[in-house]
Amino acid sequence: MKIILRKLIREPLFHFLLLGAMIFLLAGRVRSGSVGSGDKIVVTQSQIESMVVGFSRTWMRPPSQEELQGLVDDFVREEVLYREAKAMGLDQDDIIVRRRMRQKFEFLAEDQAARTGPPTDQELESYLRQYADKYSEEPNFSFDHIFFSREMRGASADAEANAMLARLSGKGTIDIAKLGDAFLLPSRFEKTSAGETARLFGEKFAEDLTKAPLGTWAGPIESSYGIHLVRVNARIPEGAPPMAKVREAVLRDLLSDRRKQELDTQYEKLRARYMVVVEPPEAPRVAEAR
Amino acid sequence: MKFATMRAKMRLGALSLVLSLTGYSLPAFSQDTGEPDKAAIEKSFPAKRPYSPYAGRTFPTRVYWGDTHLHTDLSFDAGAAGCRLGPSDAYRLAKGEEVTASSGQRVKLSRPLDFLVVADHSDNMGFFPDFLAGKPELLADPQGRKWYDMIQTGKGGEAAWEIVMSFSQGKFPKALEYAPGTSGFRSTWKAIIKAAEEANEPGRFTAFIGYEWTSLAAGNNLHRNVIFRDNGDKASTIEPYTTTKPLGSNNPRDLWKWMAGYEQKTGGNVLAIAHNGNLSNGTMFPLIESFNGKPIDREYAETRAKWERLYEATQMKGDGETHPFLSPNDEFANYERWDKGNLDLSEAKKPEMLEFEYARAALRNGLKLEQELGANPYKFGMVGSTDSHTALAAVEEDNFFGKISSSEPSAERAMHPFMKNPKLGLKIMGWETTASGYAGVWATDNTREALWDAMERKETYATTGPRMIVRFFGGWEFVAADANTRSPATVGYEKGVPMGGDLQQLVPGKSPTFLVAALKDPMGANLDRIQIIKGWVDTKGETHEKVYDVAWSGERKPDAKGKLPSVGDTVDVPNATYSNTIGATELIKVWKDPEFDASQRAFYYARVLEIPTPRWTAYDAKYFGIKMPPEVPMKLQERAYTSPIWYTPEK
After folding, report:
1. d(CA B379, CA B311)
2. Cα B249 vs. chain centroid, distance in angstroms?
3. Alpha helices in B267-324 (DSSP H)
4. Nearest Cα to Cα of residue B77 among B497, B549, B405
């Protein structure tokens, strides 16, 4: 949607229609049926210029005299038909026209928001504080694990894992690369976020990992695949990042919030001028999901 | 240049590794570095790994999940069918955020994806948002006006159908076209690049720049998804290649030329993934080129193999692994088949077309062509993707957001025809749409470069939606005990080549061995079995295939004919549930080809089956409280297909 809006703003045709609408308003509302007696259509120098620019952009060259005449004629034709169509009320209940008018209005409101100038550092800081959750980094872990397959070991899996834990807690070095059962995920994870861990091993495993002691073997804890002895080597808790790291995102979100707010306040003001009556439908037509 | 060097390096690396492991002496061959010295080479490969099992480890340790084929409102047919979400919405959903679908329903993935390729149609790219915004040039055309009015009066689905139809038949109004060089096309491409650059977070989420080259010759789907390794600085120097003459072409040979031109011009890298060929009516994997009527030649074979590294083996418009007609002895071949006609149903399917549009048959014909021409055009790796036209890569059975926006969840969608051609009496119903699939990529990091390189070397696999982890290695030295080592992948890389790789026999008299392993989706169903599918070509040039059950859950025993009993079924259709009381969480096995003939070219790939689970139609029936007609399948066995490993005899 944003892409369309941005394109629309750049669109010469859009400027054109805007101009057309202004001319129409300025030209007044006096209408009469006789030839050449009533409304005036003036094609200004600057309008012609913008036609030339528009043409050049499409064709990569300026228009010839003939082509320019064609553009002007077409402009006049459009202007005449536009005025007549409007007089006949053809713009009413037309979805395109309604949507365009709404869009234009919203552009104006957004412009209003942009005019308040860039946010100050203070405003950014307080925005970051207010929405700290949104920017905070997930906790992450570095850990080793040893897998015990319930399918392979059956009921003795837990006892065997516990026995292994006792050995690991004892003296001497043990090559952990040879312990446990074959497993397709790596046996060591570095700086892996809680979400990622949950996606790989299941929610409960990630949760248990946050509670496991640091630097020693613990467990067994359960994953989607079986049970694991784990050793958490490092754990970085959740925290709000410094402004320097997220400034761009904060700025973008704050500006976007401002635009939305401006639109809403404007709308609320305007909305208050109306009394809205929604007629009840004859029979309930809203499908209900079970 | 970089490209060529990289490939050469990879090949050399794999070769040296094999050599050092087998202790085989290096044949004399001349190269730029002079005559190689055996001792020196051996020295550069230490005999023993470092004490730390993690040191020096550069192989991919995790699989990244993504979709290589997603459409947004910038695709003209998607827009026509009601899609109102653009690329940035697509990225938000893929990253795990909740978004509001075009139908107004809230949607979120069960877990984020790791990467996404927004691949909008090349032709008329960006047409639809402008059309919908009522851009006067577009409404000035009578046909444009007619479509516009249809959409405004709620006949979006029909308009979409007509638009696709007119385009696929080459009858799309010229005045409406968004073609390279027009400002509309240009600014759309820029917008696509911008959205990708904004969403791309190296290390966390990869947003590839890409598009879909939308070749349709008389309704036969020959689409290719084009994926850039590069950032916007390079990709923005070109505009996507289209199919309308004179700027574009429907012939893939011209696309390959365009791709070569891009690499030459920018020094960048690009690859293509051929679209599921099941709607190509026998033209995706030809033996005779449909464009000139001539047999495939060596140049075609080499060029195609160079650019089309991967194949989309499964997606929403049906599964493309194989067909019961082609694989009568494969009891799982009849899975989510779409075999009524081509993309727009303008031509009905004939059985003789099937051979030239399914992955397995193409792999077989590739061997045959290689035997004849010296090059294999169909040497591709496998991925699955969505081809969703909703900007939503949502293909889990219980979270299926449909093929087009008008088929987002509703009580009616299953029974609404997706496409029809009354003249030929053909109809594809909404319920036939497949909730499939994703691409698994074994890469060293989550970046455009690392993922792209993995795609280039075909270390990928396809799934129909679940995220099971699958490893597949081929070599000559695997032994049963390798399946019991704590880290099968380490052994796999040490003794063999991963999926997508090549085997050459260096010690005569040996049969190839394979280490294959699968771990269930942590949030999904248990596994039924792993199969290895072998295809080969004999001396007469005839091709063959065979499916081997390799590893399975429980204590099942194959019967006298070698058929493994079914895993069972826990699906409760009315409640759309199942239980993991059957099947296995993990399956690992070493398998040796029992019928190996060293003189015959062959390929091997693994297929992993889940236990039966409810199909999306069952979830729909339960949620909306509707009854599906008896012909609607309500359960399925989801699966994964790995890239093959090829065996090529010497000389």
Report:
1. 9
2. 23
3. 298-307
4. B405
- Give φ, ψ of B426 to 5 degrees: -110, 140
CB distance B256 to B303 below 8 Å: yes
Q: How far is A283 from chain B (nearest CA, A)?
A: 19
Three-class SS string for B389-444?
Answer: ECCCCCCCHHHCCCCEHHHCCCCCHHHCEEEEECCCCEEEEHHHCCCCCEEEEEEC
| A148 touching B (Cβ < 8 Å) | no
- Residue A290, pLDDT score: 38
The Cβ-side half-sphere exposure at B247, using a 13 Å CA radius, reads: 16
B 249-308 residues inside an 8 A Cβ radius of A = none
Angstrom distance (rounded) from CA B120 to CA B213: 8
Q: Dihedrals φ, ψ of A117, to 5°?
A: 85, 165
Phi, psi at B308, each rounded to 5°: -100, 80
CA R_g for chain A: 34
Searching chain B, which residue's CA lies closest to the CA of residue A191?
Answer: B203
- Return the DSSP state at B352: G
DSSP character at residue B24: P
Q: What is the tens place of the pLDDT at every residue in B132-181?
A: 777 777 788 888 888 888 877 877 667 777 877 787 677 888 778 888 88
Phi, psi of B252 (to 5 degrees): -55, -30
Q: How many CB atoms lie within 10 A of CB A46?
A: 9
Residues of chain A found within 8 Å of residue B551, distances taken between Cβ atoms: none
B471 vs A contacts (CB less than 8 Å): 184
Q: Which two tokens stand for residue B154?
A: 């709620």
Whether the CA torsion B378, B381, B384, B389 is positive or negative: it is negative
SS3 B271: strand
Strand partners, B381: B310
Phi, psi of B389 (to 5 degrees): -110, 30
The CATH classification of domain A139-236, taken from the options 3.40.50.2000, 3.40.50.720, 3.10.50.40, 2.60.120.260? 3.10.50.40
* pLDDT at site B79: 82
Region(s) of chain A under CATH 3.10.50.40: 139-236
pTM, two decimals, is 0.77
CB A218 within 8 A of CB A230: yes
- Contact call for A58 and B187, based on CB within 8 A: no
Shortest Cα–Cα distance, B127 to chain A (Å)? 11
Chain-centroid distance of CA B293 in Å reads 28
How much is the pLDDT for B19? 36
Could you read off the pLDDT of A44-78 as tens digits, one per residue? Answer: 998 898 888 878 776 777 888 998 999 999 899 98
CB contact under 8 A, A99 and B133: yes
Task: Assess A186–B contact: CB distance below 8 Å, yes or no.
Answer: yes
Using the Cβ of B489 and the Cβ atoms of chain A, whether some distance falls under 8 Å is answered with yes
Alpha carbon of A210: minimum distance to chain B alpha carbons (Å): 19
Q: What is the 3-state secondary structure (H, E, C) of B444-493?
A: CCCCHHHHHHHHHCCCEEEECCCCCEEEEEEECCCCHHHHHCCCHHHHHH
> Taking CB atoms and an 8 Å limit, are A7 and B584 in contact across chains?
no
CB contact under 8 A, A226 and B133: no
- Please give the residue of chain A at the shortest CA–CA distance from B198: A249
Give me the amino acid identity at B609.
Answer: L
Cβ contact A1–B86 (<8 Å): yes
| SS3 label, residue B139 | helix
- Among the listed residues B290, B284, B278, the one whose alpha carbon sits nearest the alpha carbon of residue B436: B278
Asked whether the beta carbons of residue A184 and residue B53 sit closer than 8 angstroms, the reply is: no
Q: What is the pLDDT of residue A158?
A: 93
**Cβ–Cβ of A224/B88 closer than 8 Å?**
no
Positions in chain B short of pLDDT 50? 1-34
- Cα separation of B149 and B604, whole Å? 53
Which residue intervals of B284-426 are DSSP H helices? Answer: 298-307, 359-373
The predicted pLDDT at position A9 comes to 63
